[in-house]
Amino acid sequence: MKVLVVDDDFDQLEIRALLLRKSGFEVFEAGGRLEAQRLAADHRPDCAVIDLNMPTSAEGLALIRDLKLINPEIHLIVLTGADTQVFETRGEAALVDEVVKKPAGSAQLIQKLKAYA
Question: DSSP string spanning the chain?
């Protein structure tokens, strides 16, 4: 399964991508919105794991909309350290399959992704 991982924190991006690869996923890494758009259009991932604040929540919310426009079938998992109840009031929440509160355990994230395989 193809997974797009998007995070503006390079260390978190690398760690998350490494763990997902070791779990058998084909992973594409993006450090920001424009790169994520390009990778989504070029590789058509099945799922995306998105940090909401990249560096602002407005960028993360825009990316959610962008990815659904590129591929309406993509599964979206949003990672956030912010209050998830605030995100759930946003219209973009209806486009997302899962919201995971940071710090998220790797096993939890992998389990959620495997459910979409």
Answer: -EEEEE-S-HHHHHHHHHHHHHTT-EEEEESSHHHHHHHHHHH--SEEEEES-SSSHHHHHHHHHHHHHH-TT-EEEEEESS-HHHHHTSGGGGG-SEEEESSPPHHHHHHHHHTT-
Where do the domains of the chain lie, and which CATH numbers do they carry?
A: 8-104 (3.40.50.2300)
Q: For residues 25 and 67, is the Cβ–Cβ distance under 8 A?
A: no
pLDDT tens digit sequence for 70-107: 999 999 999 887 767 777 778 888 899 988 887 777 88
> Across-strand partners of 80?
101
User: What does pTM read for this prediction?
Assistant: 0.92
Task: Work out the percent of the chain whose per-residue pLDDT is above 90.
Answer: 67
Query: What residues pair up with 4 in beta bridges, in sequence order?
Result: 28, 48
Q: Which residue, among 11, 20, 74, has the nearest Cα to 43 in the 3D structure?
A: 74
Other C-beta atoms within 10 Å of 19: how many? 16
